[in-house]
């Protein structure tokens, strides 16, 4: 072997000292977070309450019927507004409606 790394027979062994194939690392799979579960509420009636309305809502998670007005909270659900036949709500920043009318 000479000082340049070439054997005395002239064959450059160091030129072949390379990785023959590349094995990429196993990718890290990141599971996206599950969206928050929306409440399962059922509107069973709307009552006139002075100048406004009061909604009667079934909350099956707590096994109760509650009367709520504008601005009140029902668990994680905020009651935004109540009209004659509809309740506008918000849970986890997502607006939704409960209605007495058939879809």
- Annotated CATH architecture of the domain at 42-99: Roll
Q: What Rg do the Cα atoms give?
A: 34 Å
For this structure, what is the CATH class of the domain at 42-99? Mainly Beta
Structure classification: mainly beta
Tertiary shape: rod-shaped
How many strands in all?
7
What is the percent of helical residues?
under 10%
Characterize the biggest β-sheet.
Answer: 4 strands, antiparallel
Q: Largest sheet, order of strands side by side?
A: 4-5-6-7
Average predicted local confidence, pLDDT: 86
Look up the CATH topology of the domain at 42-99. Answer: SH3 type barrels
Structure described in brief:
This protein is mostly beta strands and 103 residues long.
Walk me through what this model shows.
The chain is an all-beta fold and 103 residues long. The chain has strands at 42-49, 52-59, 64-68, 73-74, 77-82, 86-91, 94-99. The chain has a domain at 42-99: SH3 type barrels, CATH 2.30.30. The chain is built from no helices and 7 strands. A 4-stranded antiparallel β-sheet has the order 4-5-6-7, with no helix packed on it. The termini are far apart. The model has no long low-confidence stretch (mean pLDDT 86).
């Amino acid at each position: 072997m000479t000082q340049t790394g070439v054997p005395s027979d002239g064959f450059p062994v160091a030129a072949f000292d390379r990785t023959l194939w590349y094995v990429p690392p196993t990718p890290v799979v990141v599971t996206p977070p599950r969206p928050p579960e929306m409440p399962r509420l059922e509107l069973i009636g709307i009552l006139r309450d002075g100048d406004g309305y009061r909604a009667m809502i079934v909350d099956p998670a707590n096994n109760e019927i509650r009367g709520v007005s504008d601005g009140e909270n029902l668990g994680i659900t905020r009651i935004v507004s109540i009209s004659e036949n509809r309740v506008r709500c918000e849970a986890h920043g997502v607006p939704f409606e409960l209605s007495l009318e058939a879809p």
